[in-house]
Write a structure and sequence with these properties.
There is one protein chain. The protein is mainly α and 366 residues long. It has 2 domains: 35 residues, no CATH class; 275 residues, MetI-like fold (Orthogonal Bundle), CATH 1.10.3720.10. 70% of the residues lie in helices and 0% in strands. It has 17 helices and no strands. Helix 10 packs across helix 12 and helix 16 runs antiparallel to helix 17. 23% of the residues are buried. The N terminus is likely disordered.
Length: 366
């Protein structure tokens, strides 16, 4: 604070506000109290939060039971988290062999590393792209085994292991397939365009749960006797192809919004079709369609819960088996709250990255 400001403060005048304080006051006034009606809504909401938050925290944490062996150990009026804490390994690893769970931990770590890599600008994007291409195969090798690791049957896959694997691998494969479908739908070759249109419209007109039933029950009828495809791979392919059809339409919209002058300029420079798309058109389209694409990624992650209807036990399947167990009857709220926290953490992280990319795009345009 300067000498003149200090003297003014001693003379009874208010000291000048700092810039951040002025910005905060302006935000509060414009966002929370812009009109009398909205001011009343803000005050009512704050009062509700002040009343509800202590009660919720007390029930969730302070008066909750985290340690014990059975439902009889749940005392007090708080939540009883014993169905989760007692079966946390089942929730996370499913039926994976106890001696091999380190492989699951490494797979989780590799999947979790995606977000930090995407945030860091100093890392060459080519290295990040190579990491994303190799990740599905490395995760499958770690979880399934082979080439130096003991093989584990996919029937042992369950819980969060299934949810994370289907979500991450589905995201990484759906985007390139969606790009190819979008380019195929805009192709000038009638056969390629017709096949792309038929596929996209057919898949988008059928509920994903129907496709999952077909993959688990009917597709085996078309294979020769004795030939089988892992059910885990079948549901993974369905989720990938279903999501790719929706992404194709999003990307096609971005392609249609590109000025024709960019295509003409690339053609004048002698660029081939794939060079034009790879170096000029698609980078701009993907940058402009990032928000809806990430929204579809979030939708894919939540749609993985549907695999439980075809016998693949994801984290929701484990939760259902837990709530139906006689020793944990009546504790359904805690189990499904745990699921809500888990999915919120994943989806909120993806949404945060989407907001980060939108801010970066706004800065680059300004």
């Amino acid at each position: 604070m300067s000498v003149s400001a200090t003297q003014s403060y001693r003379d009874g005048q208010a000291p000048p506000r700092l810039p951040w304080a002025q910005g905060a006051m302006h935000w509060v006034k414009t966002q929370l109290f812009p009109t009398p009606f909205q001011s009343c809504l803000t005050l009512a909401t704050l009062a509700l939060l002040v009343w509800f938050t202590p009660l919720a925290l007390d029930w969730l944490f302070f008066s909750a039971t985290f340690v014990g062996d059975s439902k009889a150990d749940c005392v007090g009026d708080g939540a009883c988290w014993l169905p989760v804490t007692q079966r946390i390994e089942l929730f996370v690893y499913g039926f994976y062999p106890d001696t091999e769970t380190w492989r699951v931990n490494i797979a989780f770590g590799l999947a979790a590393a995606i977000l930090p890599l995407l945030y860091l600008k100093r890392i060459d994007r080519r290295w990040v792209l190579g990491y994303l291409i190799a990740l599905p195969f490395v995760m499958w090798w770690l979880l399934k085994g082979g080439v130096g690791l003991p093989e584990v049957s996919s029937t042992k896959f369950a819980g969060i292991l299934v949810t994370v694997f289907l979500g991450v691998i589905g995201m990484l494969f759906a985007l390139p397939i969606g790009i190819l479908l979008a380019l195929g739908r805009r192709s000038k070759k009638p056969a390629i365009k017709l096949l792309s249109v038929l596929y996209i419209e057919l898949v988008r007109s059928v509920p994903v749960i129907t496709l999952l039933f077909m993959a688990s029950l009917m597709i085996q009828l078309f294979f020769p006797e004795g030939m089988t495809i892992d059910i885990f791979l079948r549901v993974l392919i369905v989720l990938i192809m279903f999501t790719a059809a929706y992404m194709a339409e999003t990307i096609r919209g971005g392609l249609q919004g590109m000025p024709s002058g960019q295509y003409e300029a690339a053609k004048a420079l002698g660029f081939s079709y794939w060079k034009t798309m790879g170096l000029i058109i698609l980078p701009q389209v993907l940058r402009n369609t990032i928000p809806p694409l990430l929204t579809q990624f979030i939708g894919l992650f939540k749609e993985t819960t549907l695999v439980v209807v075809v016998g693949v036990l994801d984290v929701v399947g484990i939760a259902m088996s837990t709530t139906s167990a006689p020793e944990w009857l009546g504790l359904e709220h805690e189990v499904y709250l745990f699921l809500a926290f888990f999915f919120f953490a994943i989806c909120f992280s993806l949404s945060g990255y989407a907001r980060h990319l939108e801010k970066q795009m706004d800065k680059s345009r300004s």
